[in-house]
Write the structure tokens for this entry.
Amino acid sequence: MLTHLVGGMTLAVVLLFGVSGPALAEFQGTTPCEETPLANAKAVLYSPGAAKAEAGPMNLAPGPHLFVDDCYIASSANVRRVVGVPKRDPTVPNPIITGKEDGCFQPYMTVIKDESTGLLRMWFGRRTEDMNPSRSRIGYITSTDGIHWDRPTRVLSDPAPIQFGVSVIDEGARSSHPEARFKFGWYMDDGLKIATSADGLAWTPLRSGSVLRHNHDITSIFYDPIRKRYMATISVYREGDTWKGKRRLTMQSYSANLVDWSPPHYVVLPDAARDEGETQFYAMDGFLRRGELIIGMVKVLRDEVKVDNPPDPPDAYGMGYTELAWTRDGETWVRDSEPFFRPNPEKGTWDHAHAWVDEQVPMGDRTYLYYGGYARGHKVNRFEERQIGLVVMKRDRYVGRAASGRTATIVTPFLRLEFNSVSVNIDAQGGILRAQLTDGTNRPMPGFTFNDCTPVNGDVTEAPLRWTQALSALRGTSVHLEFAFENATLYGFTTE
């Protein structure tokens, strides 16, 4: 599933998921979101063991099951949780979209792989002709490989004035409303604006005013394919009970038709016990469905931090990095306790001050992460030093469980065995993994013990598990899946 690809979805939906009639009638998208009490929050900081699965057998849907949290871990030994930090590749010609030549003006973009042509299409925030710091245009460019882009960039006609934002949804060629296959969200005046398009090039406003009012200029839209509804992620700037002054915070609201929105709630908030200094959250985007999870990328801002000492120029300020967040219910977001992607530590590089991941695109067994980079600070030379880069990671390697010295073990909760195959995402270069199936009393199932398992090694995103017996022999029963591995990091498993 691509980040913004929605298969043949019908817009004519009257039910607003999770929203009662009176609550919607009271809200109607016209009350400023920043007036929402901070107590109305579904923002969680990751804590080991907090996401334990229910005691009964789990019914696993086909697809990946990731170890970003502990939902699929009933018990473990000799493992440590490691964030799979993406590594910069000097062979990628970063920045791939530049400020000076391409007119990039924002760290926001949408990248979609077109299902009919195979082309990657990018919409990005471009500066205006008069260099207005509070207005932007829609830049557009395509690529065959997602790395090298076909210039010159195009400047699309604005559906209406745009302050910031270039968030695009593609419903795909099977859209039941081909004249509105593409959706575009941006910020202007007092909130989220929406436009539609048949081709992603010529846009028509959905309505004249804002559909969701909020007071900070960052917003994005995403279609949740699990719950079949739209999700708006918006930014607000407000005071709080546990910090001085105003801070940028992240909220979400949901809709079935892009016009009527649910009462918003906070999904990312500062944690006084963990977040240092004036930690702010500029936005969250880059949403990607992986199995039962939606993974998001949180843009963290530390505006009081000077990247270099002394800074250049003297009034340069601000440092930004990316953290992971995920949701299992589509509304409660868990933010990771460690940074995922940091600015380049080498002074003078184009992304030395900020590295904000804004888009994820699956490409085979890799995920392309597109990010906005700043060279020297939050507000320094914004017309040339806000640029877009690419970092590549192996698919689903957000968080792993690494063997700590001795043989590591992970036991899943009780699983109802309704799948035909299971594979693992593992880096076992120089290591090994075996797996077994156990019953409700933790006894190995005959034919499915560690000794019956073909060893797995190497660095593989989908390494099949094979035993002397076929999984079909146990279909319909409930089992624990137990992994034992050495000198390896296990990221998750996939069922089909």
Observations:
- The CA atoms of residues 127 and 133 lie 8 Å apart.
- The helical segments are 21-27.
- The domain at 104-394 is CATH 2.115.10.20 (Tachylectin-2; Chain A).
